[in-house]
């Protein structure tokens, strides 16, 4: 069942088209991540869904009800949508309990009981209810912001880069905790982020945005393993793109003859491999021969640039495990597992 439907959404700010024809379906109870570089329109889209801004064209339908159509819209406070911003936006002069209960139309005792219940739900000690936001860590503040949004029992939760201000370890732990809370509550979620790994780990559906449009929408595995073009491929992670001539389900490439995922196509094309498909060993055994042109030791991994031989030299960069001692000028063999993805 579709809970949120966006049809041909457009929004301009002067001469700039922030959104240029957005279509998206979000299933009830699902998690969708909108990922893209800064300035591509992600936050604008979230603001339209929340009701903070109005689209110039297009429709927003939520729970079967028309929320906006370019000429009129339902106000934000009547949409039943929760939102957690990047910095939490907690009221600094209120306690945690008062922040969570803010906006609830209930007696003080009911608000306090609800705040205590939600603190347990988001994994925080109820003893923190009397604290103020500046007495909490960044991760704790984000969980309180989530509890405040959950207090009004929204059917849809909007997360606007809520983990970006946290350090790496805390970011992963907070994201996992938030995901578990939202899943347990059965709340449909729309996450906006510029972090590709976060989008892939969080969502059931990923929408890759570029210049106000969706370049690709699909499951995390689909958009990662079968991106629509090299730009999308590079944005979603490290990608090795090679020229090739394709026929009979195989590609003749600088890495030799490789199986491809498009058995019908014939002719020249570009193909893509992900780093996890590549193995690099000292020059022995099977594989394509290459030479280490550069290497930078980074601890567990090393950043290397490998040059392939032949009439026209081809090189690519790759992170490889540092377990093998390799040096510039070393001859190596490059092995490939799985199939290469074809860009038509």
TrEMBL record:
| ABC transporter domain residues | 4-236
Q: Which UniProt keywords apply?
A: ATP-binding, Cell membrane, Ion transport, Iron, Iron transport, Membrane, Nucleotide-binding, Transport
Gene3D superfamilies per the record? 2.40.50.450, P-loop containing nucleotide triphosphate hydrolases
Q: Known SUPFAM superfamilies for this protein? A: MOP-like (SSF50331), P-loop containing nucleoside triphosphate hydrolases (SSF52540)
Q: Does the keyword Magnesium apply?
A: no
Concerning Pfam families, the annotation shows:
ABC_tran (PF00005), TOBE_2 (PF08402)
The UniProt entry's coiled-coil ranges are none
According to UniProt, the name of this protein is ABC transporter ATP-binding protein
Q: Which organism is it from?
A: Neorhizobium phenanthreniclasticum
């Amino acid at each position: 069942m579709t809970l949120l439907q966006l049809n041909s959404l457009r929004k301009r700010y002067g001469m700039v088209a922030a959104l240029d024809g957005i279509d998206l379906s979000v299933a009830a109870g699902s998690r969708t991540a909108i990922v893209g570089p800064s300035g591509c329109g992600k936050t604008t889209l979230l603001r339209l869904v929340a009701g903070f801004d109005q689209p110039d064209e297009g429709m927003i339908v939520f729970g079967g009800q028309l929320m906006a159509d370019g000429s009129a819209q339902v106000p934000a406070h009547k949409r039943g949508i929760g939102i957690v911003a990047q910095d939490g936006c907690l009221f600094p002069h209120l306690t945690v309990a008062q922040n969570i209960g803010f906006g609830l139309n209930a007696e003080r005792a009911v608000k306090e009981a609800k705040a205590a219940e939600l603190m347990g739900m988001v994994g925080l000690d109820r003893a923190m209810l009397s604290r103020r936001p500046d007495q909490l860590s960044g991760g704790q503040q984000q969980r309180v912001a989530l509890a405040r949004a959950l207090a009004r029992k929204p059917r849809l939760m909007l997360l606007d880069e809520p983990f970006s201000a946290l350090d790496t370890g805390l970011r992963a732990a907070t994201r996992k905790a938030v995901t578990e809370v939202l899943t347990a509550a059965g709340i449909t979620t729309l996450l906006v982020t510029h972090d590709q790994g976060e989008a892939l780990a969080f969502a059931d559906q990923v929408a890759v945005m570029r210049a106000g449009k969706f370049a690709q929408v699909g499951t995390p595995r689909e958009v990662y393993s079968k991106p629509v073009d090299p730009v999308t491929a590079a944005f979603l992670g490290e990608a090795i793109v090679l020229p090739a001539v394709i026929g009979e389900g195989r590609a003749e490439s600088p890495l030799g003859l490789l199986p491809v995922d498009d058995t019908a196509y014939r002719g020249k094309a570009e193909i893509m491999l992900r780093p996890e498909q590549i193995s690099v060993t000292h020059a022995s055994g099977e594989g394509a021969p290459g030479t280490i042109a550069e290497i930078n030791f980074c601890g567990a991994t090393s950043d290397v640039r490998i040059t392939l031989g032949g009439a026209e030299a081809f090189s690519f960069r790759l992170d490889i495990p540092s377990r093998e001692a390799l040096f510039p000028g070393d001859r190596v063999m490059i092995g490939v597992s799985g199939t290469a993805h074809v860009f038509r």
